[in-house]
Specification:
heterodimer, A: mainly alpha, Sodium/glucose cotransporter, 35 helices, 67% helix, B: mainly alpha, 5 helices
Chain lengths: 907, 98
């Protein structure tokens, strides 16, 4: 039913689908419409963390050590909590400096050190082989198990088989072809693989579905739900022990160290760094991944224990390796479809890990080991070749092939005897060696290259001695004597109990010693040595990535001179002439400048493009080989960097000051305008006043002169003239008094009295004062004042002045003989309203406001010749307003006028 | 992320480390099986889930622009990549994707 043909065909079809997705992803990326630019794809791609280790190995571990499989997923969960602080910083730096791999990152941080990049690469290559080997092992074991369906039996494919009969070997070959097709289609100067990320996201979903389906099948189909499963498992003391903590190796210490290892490995395994940092499209996606990724881990781990216990119950005789329970259970219960799905799920988990890991590693090997060696051995040989991009691709392809084959060799000769997880943990401990130089380097500016070199090499050696070599010894690859007796027979040097430290499980033991040496070396090495210019600049740029606006401090170190053509040639050699000319053209377009002699900016531009293709350290070596001349001193560079920081601060402050200035000058402008207006009013006022004064003066003078020139004028005539003179003098006096009043009110020098005033009595007084005017004109005055006193607070004399003014105005404009004036006092809402209405000619609508302006007099045919001073109403208005009241007029031509005053009632 | 959310995140981390280690785990290291599930498993998975839910609450409730990121994130995350370089990469600028 499940023949080899079916299995192999479905595996190849599945890989074809993955390839199709990757191809489509690349197409879309080239078209500028990325399919991975969303937080969900990003999160799924992070799940590349879950390899065959998770898919098969977790169950295997759970079957022997209970909950011990969990720290490997709790660690990344805790790390995800810290994403916003740690990962975002790394991503920001990586984007700013065009970093492409973890080796590149470490090297860039410590002054673009080629040595450090090489060392990181070597550690990664050596450290990762066990990890690759377990993927191969998982694929091969699952395949050989599945092909015997419906029999469930483990086959022993030990080293005595020749390799051409070994399925694993052919699996490795297929994977090499696949990885080369996937990962090295062309040299990309960003070293990003959108298509691969898309494929990984798909396979992450696939393996999750497959695993959860098996879990459900085991828990609910093969058993009667979790309760039944646990109940039956607990019947046996061995299985019951798995449900408690006692079976965890190393107990709580082992648990803690495993958590720590996974936290670090999750960030610093090369493929994790690739998907987490380099392939990150947008920092904002990290936010979603903070919780979505732990949720994924939670989901894929939910059924690990049920499957492990179910496997132990069903295969009670121990005939099946616990690592293969996931696949063996559906086979034993005759579910071929599910078994095939599981096989494909495990396959995809393993494939994605191998693909990404080897492509990333090959890039590192090419950029940080092979190229620097080639450059060092024979730079002229390289200089003679016009296009090196083909060479780069060739190196990478060879690197991929070599890595997978090495992984195969490790599996064949060393890793076979280990369980999946045990081998994987060796790799985790290696990846954790990068934690001190990276994490400490992110926050401690003084950490320098020498410290990093000492710490990293020390940590690596300790790791190799305490984990890798014993593993090799155990498989008989090297003599095993030193494991038990210690190196040179010294008990203190036993790799599992270094310096007599016993009682820890091997991983915790190794983590403790390697971290101690690593961190100690980094701290002491950095404290005791002095960094050079480029190290200081890079350290400062990495630590202050969020504070600084510019990230080109390393560019400032170039001050040499080089022909642009030479730079172009250099670039073209590595990324191909076509891409190089594109890059230079866009640079020219942007800067509107094609310098024959390249300036530091262009040099830096080229260096960073190169860095994308061959790594920061090699790029620096290449560029410096053609750039001649001195460099800026470290002090100068730091000054420039800090200046730019200060400049930002200054300009921020300047902006604020200029905003304040603007506000102040706006106020000043307003004040100035008001002053000008007042000045204009004053001029107008003076000219009007003098004009108004001249009119009565002229008539007084004219009549006086007549009287003087005609002493014998008759008495009647004389008294008439003298009467006119007296009247005009009165008018003059009144005018002057009013002008003085006005001036006092305007300047605020008037003294207001605040007393109790009876409005009714006040109006009565005003009526008495003006009774003569009414009599002169034979006008009638009607009073509607109510019968009770109306008390408000105010200035008695001023208010009287207002009423007198209104009454005299009213009578003034009344017709002779038939004049009628009415004065009313009544409450309106919370105010007292005084209305003075007359039956005069009325006031046109457009004059209603103007009459309250100084010296404005209604002068038209209806009103007749103006007879007032033009100051009465303005003064009245000022007084009323001072009492928080209002004065206005309601009138129409021919209908008489009503002047209304409203004053607030006393509270 | 707001200052408050950052503090919550640090607190969550500390709580997570403490809750998922000795000696808290020792409290659940016993053969008791509530709801038919071993109490140690039950505790570990529940704690894990609670941690994730709290993370969701903290992270999703802080959708407020960063004080230290005045520009939109797409630009802020790639301050150094000029359009020229983007074109040089073959136009694969993910930030411009829909």
């Amino acid at each position: 039913m499940l023949s080899d043909g079916v299995i192999i065909t479905s595996a190849l079809v599945y890989m074809g689908v993955l390839f199709g997705i990757a191809y489509y992803g690349d197409q879309r990326a080239d078209a500028g419409r990325s399919i991975i630019a969303n937080p969900y794809t990003y999160t799924l791609s992070l799940a590349i963390y879950c390899t065959a280790w998770t898919f098969y190995g977790s169950v295997g571990l759970a079957a022997t050590s209970g909950v011990d499989f969990l720290p490997v997923y709790l660690g990344p969960t805790l790390m995800a909590v810290l994403f916003w602080f740690v990962l975002r910083r790394i991503v920001r730096i990586t984007k700013a400096h065009r970093i492409t791999t973890i080796a590149d990152f470490v090297a860039s941080r410590y002054g673009k050190s080629g040595l450090l990049a090489g060392m990181v690469t070597v550690i990664v290559v050596v450290g990762i082989l066990p990890y690759i080997s377990i993927q191969l092992k998982a694929i091969a074991t699952s395949f050989s198990l599945l092909r015997q369906y419906p029999t469930v039996a483990m086959t022993d494919f030990a080293a005595h088989q020749p390799f051409w009969l070994d399925t694993t070997f052919y699996v490795a070959l297929v994977l090499i072809v696949f990885a080369i097709l996937f990962g090295t289609r062309h040299i990309d100067i960003t070293e990003r693989h959108e298509g691969m990320v898309a494929a990984v996201a798909f396979e992450s979903l696939f393996k999750l579905v497959a695993f959860v389906l098996v879990g459900i099948a085991v828990t609910f189909v093969m058993f009667d739900g979790p309760g039944d499963l646990f109940q039956r498992a607990a019947e046996h003391p061995y299985r019951a022990a798995l449900m408690r903590f006692d079976v965890v190796p190393g107990s709580y210490g082992g648990w803690l160290s495993l958590t720590f290892l996974s936290m670090m490995a999750f960030l610093f395994l090369p493929r994790q760094f690739q998907v987490l940092v380099v392939e990150n499209v947008n920092e904002a996606h990290i936010r979603k991944a903070i919780w979505l990724f732990p949720l994924y881990l939670f989901a894929i781990n939910l059924f690990v224990l049920p499957i492990a216990l179910g496997g132990l119950l069903i295969f009670a005789g121990g005939e099946v390796d616990a690592d293969m329970f996931v696949l063996a259970l559906p086979m034993a219960k005759h579910m071929p479809d599910l078994a095939l799905l599981v096989f494909l799920g495990g396959l995809s988990a393993a494939i994605s890990m191998i693909l990404f890991e080897t492509v990333t590693l090959a890039t590192m090997v090419c950029n940080d080991v092979v190229m620097p060696i080639l450059l060092r051995i024979n730079p002229r040989w390289l200089a003679g070749r016009s296009d090196l991009s083909g060479l780069l691709l060739g190196i990478r392809r060879a690197g991929i092939a070599a890595l997978i084959l090495l992984g195969y060799l490790y599996f064949r000769y060393i890793g076979e005897s280990y369980a999946l997880v045990a081998s994987g943990l060796i790799s985790f401990a290696a990846a954790a060696q990068f934690a001190p130089p990276i994490l400490i380097g992110l926050y401690w500016q003084r950490a320098n290259r020498r410290g990093a070199l000492i710490g990293l090499s020390g940590g690596f050696l300790v790791w190799a001695y305490t984990l890798l070599l014993p593993a090799m010894a155990r498989s008989g690859w090297i003599g095993g004597g030193f494991v038990d007796q210690g190196l040179f027979g010294l008990e203190l040097l036993r790799p599992y109990a270094l310096f007599g430290l016993q009682g820890l499980d091997p991983y915790m033991h190794s983590v403790f010693w390697s971290m101690l040496i690593n961190i100690g070396g980094l701290v002491f090495g950095s404290t005791l040595s002095k960094p050079d210019a480029i190290e200081q600049v890079q350290g400062s740029q990495f630590v202050n990535v969020f504070e600084r606006e510019r990230h080109d401090g390393d560019a400032l170190l170039w001050r040499g001179v080089v022909d642009t053509a030479q730079l172009y040639e250099l670039l073209a050699r590595f990324i191909g002439p076509q891409r190089a000319s594109e890059a230079f053209e866009s640079y020219i377009q942007e800067n509107h400048d094609y310098p024959l002699q390249a300036d530091p900016r262009l040099i830096h531009y080229t260096e960073r493009l190169l860095a994308g293709a061959i790594g920061a350290a090699s790029a620096r070596v290449m560029v410096s080989s053609i750039v001649m001349g001195e460099v800026l001193s470290i002090e100068e560079v730091m000054t420039i960097l800090d200046e730019s920081t200060q400049m930002i601060e200054y300009s921020r402050r300047l902006e604020q000051q200029s905003r304040e200035l603007e506000a102040a000058s706006a106020e000043l402008r307003a004040a100035n305008n008001r002053l000008r207006e007042l000045d204009r009013l004053k001029d107008e006022f003076i000219s009007t006043v003098t004009h108004e004064l001249r009119t009565p003066l002229t008539s007084i003078r004219a009549f006086s002169e007549i009287l003087l020139a005609n002493p014998d004028m008759d008495v009647e005539q004389r008294s008439k003239f003298l009467g006119i003179i007296v009247k005009e003098s009165e008018r003059l006096t009144r005018l002057i008094n009013q002008v003085l009043d006005m001036a006092k009110i305007d300047s605020g020098r008037i003294e207001w009295r605040d007393e109790e005033v009876d409005l009714r009595a006040l109006i009565q007084d005003a009526i008495n004062s003006t009774s003569q005017l009414f009599r002169d004109k034979a006008a009638i005055l009607r009073e509607e004042l109510g019968d009770r006193p109306v008390v408000i607070a105010g200035d008695h004399d001023r208010l009287t002045q207002v009423i007198i003014n209104l009454l005299s105005n009213a009578v003034k404009f009344c017709p002779e003989q038939t004049g009628e004036v009415t004065i009313r006092l009544r409450p309106v809402a919370n105010r007292w309203r005084i209305e003075v209405s007359d039956n005069g000619p009325g006031i046109a609508e457009d004059q209603h406001r103007l009459i309250f302006e100084k010296f404005h007099q209604v002068s038209n045919s209806h009103a007749g010749k103006p007879t007032g001073t033009g100051l009465g109403l303005p003064i009245s208005q000022k007084i009323v307003e001072h009492h928080n009241g209002r004065i206005w007029v309601e009138s129409e031509i021919g209908q008489g006028a009503v002047f209304i005053v409203e004053l607030p009632m006393r509270q | 992320m707001r200052q408050q959310s950052r503090e919550y995140i640090v607190i969550l981390f500390i709580v997570g480390v403490l809750a998922l280690n000795y000696p808290v785990l020792e409290l659940f290291n016993r053969p008791w099986m509530p709801f038919g599930i071993p109490v140690l498993y039950l505790y570990l998975y529940l704690m894990w889930l609670v941690l994730i839910i709290l993370l969701i609450v903290v992270v999703e409730r802080s959708e407020i622009p960063e004080p230290d990121q005045p520009a939109p994130m797409e630009n802020a995350s790639q301050p150094e990549v000029t359009p020229a370089e983007k074109r040089a990469t073959g136009g694969a600028d993910p930030a411009e994707a829909p």
